[in-house]
From TrEMBL:
Keywords: Aminotransferase, Pyridoxal phosphate, Transferase
GO molecular function: pyridoxal phosphate binding; transaminase activity
Enzyme class: transferase
Needed cofactors: pyridoxal 5'-phosphate
Protein's UniProt name: Aminotransferase
Similarity section: Belongs to the class-I pyridoxal-phosphate-dependent aminotransferase family.
InterPro entries: Aminotransferase_I/II_large (IPR004839), AspAT/PAT-like (IPR050596), NHTrfase_class1_PyrdxlP-BS (IPR004838), PyrdxlP-dep_Trfase (IPR015424), PyrdxlP-dep_Trfase_major (IPR015421), PyrdxlP-dep_Trfase_small (IPR015422)
Domain Aminotransferase class I/classII large intervals: 31-386
Gene3D superfamilies named among the record's database cross-references: Aspartate Aminotransferase, domain 1, Type I PLP-dependent aspartate aminotransferase-like (Major domain)
SUPFAM superfamilies from the UniProt entry: PLP-dependent transferases
PANTHER family: ASPARTATE AMINOTRANSFERASE
């Protein structure tokens, strides 16, 4: 058997791996609370399910669609993005629909990167960015951002080379929950403009903001979409549609044509029935979106003080978006004498039956990621299990 160098270097997604382990423990009858995956616990809203069922019954879902998606869906995404971002001139030609935002990102990296091209990646970063950049022959250039969790033009400048091709921005961010404000985005855009770099902006959590915080995308700083900016988004988080695998790219039409050509060989069209579901999600009743957003807000407001009260857990700035906490746990390691963050996460899973993600999966040691996309009772129980674990292991 021969395995390519590329596949040998590839690591499985850490979040999917640990979550699969937690799900297996639950299947084995162990009462594990799974806070390791970024997956809303709500069922997809009923109007979306019904639209999908109707598409199946009408026979619409039986056939191939264009590789970049149904024309009416591409147009709906263009209209919705134009309205939400106040951008002029967007049409369906600016949109490619993909098998989740994951495939949107993958197809973009395949389209914009040549071997050796560097992508600036603020660290911590979502697990798949670095692997996807490498799969496209590119080089992820990570930029540690410190306690503020926000990158500045000076940080970017320090890593600029003649190979730098793009900057990847994710706001609201996974795993930190931070949101960049308009002034911060403007300084970043001034810098990327000065160096004629592309910006891939992953806006998948754009509608999940809390306690009055608002979301601005770097794509909104011009009246018409800047050809150097590529918007990534999708339905997984906002509409609780992780299983449907619906994401999209919004970008310059010439770039989207290349993404579409790539998709025509990689996936063909994204699953037809899911496209009808996304069409309803974007154009139908939005009531459930707000219901779910409010539930996440309540969970954040409940769990943040509980987590920061845990001995050895430090998270000074309350997150404003997405559904994660990313506390520094160096103090907990010191208190317990547990040697590594990975070992702490391991013991919390096996002894306390709480599944979390080691910050090293996001490029940062001494942190763990806690997803609060689960019900309040489970969240409270999980924190109290962690507290008991820490008390039992304190030296
Ligand atoms: C920042 C970010 N981008 C993209 C994705 C991919 O989402 P999906 O492929 O489910 O649309 C995720 C999922 O966890 C994410 O957290």
């Amino acid at each position: 058997m021969h395995l390519s160098n590329r596949s040998q270097q590839l690591q499985p997604s850490a979040t999917m791996k640990i979550s699969a382990q937690a799900k297996q423990m639950v299947a084995d009858g162990i009462d594990v609370i799974n806070l390791s995956i970024g997956e809303p616990d709500f069922e997809t809203p009923d109007n979306i399910k019904q639209a999908a069922i109707a598409a199946i019954n009408d026979g619409h879902a039986s056939f191939y669609t264009p590789a970049a998606g149904l024309p009416q869906l591409r147009a709906a995404i263009a209209d919705r993005t134009a309205a939400d971002y106040q951008l002029t001139g967007l049409t369906g030609k600016n949109v490619a629909v993909t098998t989740g935002a994951k495939m949107a990102l993958y197809s973009v990296f395949q389209t914009i990167l040549d071997p050796g091209d560097e992508v600036l990646l603020p660290e911590p970063y979502w697990v798949s960015y670095a692997e996807q950049i490498k799969l496209a022959g590119g080089v992820p250039v990570t930029i540690p951002v410190g306690d503020s969790f926000k990158v500045t033009p000076a940080d970017l400048e320090a890593k600029l080379t003649d190979k730098t091709r793009a900057f990847l921005l994710n706001s609201p961010e996974n795993p930190t929950g931070v949101i960049y404000d308009q002034a911060e985005l403007q300084t970043l855009k001034d810098w990327t403009d000065a160096h004629d770099l592309m910006v891939v902006t992953d806006d998948i959590y754009g509608q999940l903001t809390y306690n009055g915080a608002s979301f601005t995308s770097i794509a909104q700083l011009t009246d018409a979409l800047d050809p150097n900016i590529i918007i990534i988004s999708g339905a997984s988080k906002t509409y609780s549609m992780t299983g449907w695998r619906m994401g999209y790219v919004v970008a310059d039409a010439a770039l989207v044509a290349k993404v579409s050509a790539f998709l025509s060989h990689a996936t063909g069209n994204p699953t037809a029935v899911s496209q009808y579901a996304l069409l309803e999600a974007l154009t139908g009743d939005q009531t459930q979106v707000e219901v779910m957003r409010q539930a996440f807000e309540e969970r954040l407001n409940t769990i943040y003080p509980l987590v920061t009260a845990l001995p050895g857990f430090k998270l000074d700035t309350k997150p404003q978006g997405a559904f994660y906490l990313f506390p520094d746990v160096a103090g907990a390691l010191e208190l317990t004498g547990i040697a590594t963050t990975g070992e702490l996460v391991n013991q919390l899973l096996n002894e306390a039956h709480v599944s979390l993600v080691d910050g090293n999966a996001f490029g940062v040691d001494h942190h763990i990621r806690i997803s609060y996309a689960t019900d309040l009772a489970s969240l409270k129980k999980a924190v109290s299990r962690i507290a008991d674990f820490l008390a039992a292991h304190t030296k």
